[in-house]
Prior knowledge:
By secondary structure, this protein is mainly alpha-helical. Helix content is 67%, strand content 10%. The protein starts with a helix and ends with a helix.
Amino acid sequence: MSFRTELxxxxxxxxxxxxxxxxVIGAAFGKIVTSFVNDILMPPIAMLVGxxxxxxxxxxxxxxVMEGAEVVTPAxxxxxxAFIQAVVDFLIVGTAIFMVIKGMNxxxxxxxxxxxxxxxxxxxKEEVLLTEIRDLLKNK
Length: 140
């Protein structure tokens, strides 16, 4: 089997295509969540805290070394605002994924719980014996 044929078979499997669709949708969802956090959720929080941009909130551990207008060594900062924003992004995405998986598991459980049609009960010894007698009488 050629490489091209194997690659085509691999890519056309259902689960590979499903995974690709999931990645594209997940990336788009991630952008929406990031925009929601950056543009909708964090500005009011930054206003309450008293800073204009939450993501730029930081603690300067060591100031920048300057020579005139030129920065020789940049400042060393602890960027807690960007970290908190990333954590909020993660929590929103994680919660959404949890809800989707919970819904899928619920549907899967319902499908498993559906009653399967029962096979007819096996005939008793008396019924088997009577059937054999009937068949013997028919053959005579």
